[in-house]
Structures are given as C-alpha cells and as structure tokens.
Design a protein that fits this description.
664 residues; alpha+beta; Glutaredoxin; Glycosyltransferase; 4 domains; five-stranded mixed sheet; four-stranded mixed sheet; 24 helices
Length: 664
Amino acid sequence: MNRLAEETSPYLRQHRDNPVHWLPWGDDAFAEARRRDVPILLSVGYSACHWCHVMAHESFENEATAAIMNERFVNVKVDREERPDVDAIYMNAVQALTGRGGWPMTVFLDTDGRPFFGGTYFPPTARHGMPSFVQLLDAITDAWTNRRPELHEQADRLTSMLHSMGSIEVVGSPPAHSLVDAATQALADEFDPEWGGFGGAPKFPSSMNLDLLLRVHHRTGDANVLSMVTTSLDAMASGGMYDHLAGGFARYSVDERWLVPHFEKMLYDNALLARVYLHSWQVTGNPDHRQVLDEVLDYVLRDLRHPDGGFYSAEDADSEGVEGKFYVFTPDEVREVLGSDADAALAWWGMTDEGNFEGSNIPWRPERGAFLRPPAIEEAREALLARRNQRVRPGLDDKVLTEWNALFLAALAEAALVTGNAGWLDAAVANGEFLLAHLCDPETGRWLRSWQAGHADRPAGARHLAYAHDYAALVDAFTRLGEASGQARWIIEARATADAMLDLFWDDDGGGLFTSGRDAEALVTRPKDIQDNATPAANSVAALALLRLGALTGESEYRTRAETILSLVGPVATRHPSGFGHLLAALDLYHRGAVEVAITGDRPDLVRQAAAGFRPRMMLAWGEPYDSPLWADRRDDLAYVCHDFVCERPTDRVDALAAQLHDA
C-alpha cells in the first residue's frame, strides 16, 4: 500500500493517491527489499518541479505501470529538499552514469542502497532514443534476474566513486588571493554582453558569482566588472523571469533573454537575489535596483510567510495542471480590466496579440532596466494583480526549511540594517524566534531540517535531523540578525550553533564539514558539500560565516576552521573557479581581512553611517554588549574601527567614521 499520506512533505503527499505502493526513505523500505529480494526504485523530486508532475501523471498515476512497479520493486519517494544528503549521493551517481542530472531523478539500488543504474525523466513511450519507462523497468528486471553479478560490479564501481568524491582532504594552505581574480576572468569569458548572465540558455541567476564580482569591484574599482553585474541585474529584472505584478523571481530562464521562465518561485533564489540587488543598490545608488529589492522582499513577506514568522519553500510552476497559466495575460484580458488605459500598460509590459508564450503574454519590460512605474502604470499593475489573484494559484509548498529560512533571514536582516526599514527588522526577528521555537529541539538543542503546520490529518511538527547546510546558514543568519538588531542574544545563538556544527559535522581526519551529522543515519557514503550550485555549498557558507563570527567574537578557533575549509576546497576551486562564488567571497575576506566596528552607547547616527554603503569587509557590533574583545574597556557614545582587534582612534563624529571605513 501507499504510505505517503502521513508525511510532512507536500511533495510526498502529492503522491499519496498514486496506485504505486510508495514508501518513504527508511529502514522499512530496505528491509522489505531484502525480504522480497527485489531492487529499490528510488524516485527523487520536489513539489515545484514541472517535469516531476509530468512523470507522475504519465507513469505513477497509470494503473498498469504502477502494477509493474509494485510487483518488481520496492518503490521509494524522496523530497530532495527534505533529504539533500540522499539527493546528493544519488545525483552524483546519475551524473557519473549519464553525464547529466536533474529532476525527477530515477535511480535503481540494490538492497544495501548501492546504486547500479539511474537517470532523470523517462517518458511513457520511447522517443528521441530514450526508452519508455516500462521498457526500462523490463530491462532492470531482466538484469536483476539473469545478470545480477554484473549489477553488483556496477554498484561496486559507483559506490567506490562516491566514496572517493567525499574523501578530499586538506593539502597545503588556502589558495592565494589571485584565485579571486582568476574566477573574475573566467566569468568574464563566459559573460553574455548583450543579455547579461553567463553562458547560454537555459540561464540561471548566478547570484553568488554576481555578488563576488561586486566584491571585486569594491576592491579594484574596475568598471568592466561592475558592468557585468548591472547588465545582468537589469536584464534579469526586465525579463519574464521576474514577476512584474507581484515581485519575486522564478527559478531560471529557458532562453538567453531571461524572457520565458520555468515558473516555479523558490525561497532560496529570492533570498540570494535580494542580497545582490541590495548590494548593487548600495554600490550604484540605482533606484531601480532598490525597487526590485523592495518588491522581492515584499513578495516573500506577503505570499510565502507563515503567520508566526516562518517562510514557506516555494510556489509551483503549474496551476490547473498547466505550466505558467497563473502568470500570463492576453491583450483582450488586459483591455477588459483596464479599459481605455490598456494601451499604455500593454506597451509598458511588452504584450502583443501574437504573445510571447504559447499565444499569451508573460509581462516583461522592453525598456531594459527601467522599473520605476509612473502613477498610471502603478494603478494598472494593481488592477491586473487583483484580476490575477482571482485565478487558481499555483501549488504552495508550505514546509519551512531551516536552511532556506536562514538564507532569507540573512538577506532580510542585512536589508533592514542598511535601509532602516523597521518592518523588515521586525519580520527578521520574528523569523529568528520562529526557527528557535519550531526547528530546534528544546531538550537537546539539536536543529531539525523541516517543519510544517498541522492539517486535518496530522499535527504540526518538525522532522529530519538538520544538515551542515542548515547549521552553516543559521550561523550566518543569526550573526547578521545580531548586527541588524543590536541584540546580543543572536550572537550568542550564532556561537552556540557554530559550536554544535563543528562538533556534529567536522571531519577530524580530512577537514571540512560532512553533509550529515555524526548522529545521523549511515548512508552508502558520507559526502561533503563543497561546490556552490543553486544554493551555496555548506562548506562555503560555513567558511564565510565563521570568519565573520570570529571577527565579532574574537574566537580564533572559528577563523582556524574557516582557514581549513578554504585549504580543503581550494584545489578544486582552482580548477573550476566559477563554480565557487560564495567560497571565493570567503577567500576574499580571509586575505583582505575583516574590519570590526564597535559602536557604544546610544548613537544611531554612527550606526547609520556604518551601515551606509557596500562594506563587505565590515562586521558591526552595537547595542547590547556580549563577550568579545570589541566590547572590552570601551567608553560610551564612540565608534571603534578595528583590524584584527587593533583599533584606530575612537571617534564620535560621523564624518570621521566614514573616513575610517572608506575601504571596508
């Protein structure tokens, strides 16, 4: 029978009515496979994945296909967002077998969990040289029955490869700062000067690399480097990948112009992009980039927020079974809503009778980079949004993931500090409180990965031990929340989380962080997440977060561990620098050094000055004192600017503080 109805994952529950006898990942599934002597069919996806829905409809809802699956396999469903450890291991295997990866991911395992074959989407009928899903099931069954020794040999090879991928160890010291310049050149070589971004279609936002380039521009003043950033940000927010009516970005663009998106909207993308638009606005003063920042944050706070302060994971690409249906308009519908004002709105958002997406129109800005709306267009936006909100919304993935919440919390807290927006700061503090209340075990202090509100068929609750991703993102988020709020408790929470992270995940032999904790379920291998992908790698986030926390607290062990991570990942980053944008931001800070700022007493004017401008090297302590050399023997109402805790002459003048922070 299907056993997904009681799962907290919306993705798993989407499959609870399939005729497939799905089991969640766990010991029961492997015990059943051993009892029946059949392989595991592992299917991995996520709720906002369009092609996951397609394969589910074509194959998993098909009674005949389900009967074959049930007879010959133990079928296991995994939400990749809840179980990034499982996803990472078997995605590496699929990429080794096929040269590519993606979701839905379909992998066949022996009864010990070792992979022997896999791929991604398989169609219901053979096409384009790809077998049908049933043909694949027949071939796997034949091999399992008649050529099992060959499958075991394949499983041995793949498992050995997976072990080797997780066994990198520290050799030498962190790479030279010149690696940041090498990455800059690599990005310049891939840059699309016409449409921005890197490479061709499909195009992803590359937010971490864009943020790295802003750091490079901060150091060098290179106008060409800044142009790569602004060209990309202008083009992305002008295209249909940006929601011009409600704010927020879709996952990626299927074309090089950022026009046609894959329509799912993910919390982590919007967290990372909000940070880049914030930093670009600080660097350039461009009000259009500030507007994008405002709209992205407001979108999440309005449409992805639990009433108690947590943030939901995603909105689906599909509504009523059709990709993008919620977002597109025809000119006739615009005219019906706006009447005589329609022509101006149609021109503003580039809508035509021919359309730009399957006969309809994805709103976009033909005048690139011009987002500030005149009053008439703003009224049209509000009217069209009200009409759109009458439609059936895309599915909402309402699980609250610790890592993704922490990524957004970090961006929200920094934006609140920089802009002085009290509402954003309140929302950031509420999110921090929510995470502590719902995703940290009150008895053990162990963080958990995923929480969901209660429904009629199950209570609210959190499950799955949190991963290194979660802990590292929390350290950064709590540190930034402490800087934004002036509340000492968040620095204390950051320290406690950092200490627990190093205890649970640190590789005492090889250095760096394992993905899963020493108290977690043992899988076929214990990987380390080192390369930045859609989200920054756990080791990348940890390196930067530990450097920043060490600068605020004076705890040298945090810097030592960050240095070890940089030494561990450095050789790989040297070979592929454009895949390590977040890690290289940590390397940049490591070589350039932190600028520690302590502001004592009640001096909001000095705090505002410290927060003004893009200062990637600066860590800020103000408000409530905590255990740190930054607070030792300080007089009130002064700003202390320090480098490795060696401080310049304190000042009570805003202009003098600005001068001391000129290169921070």
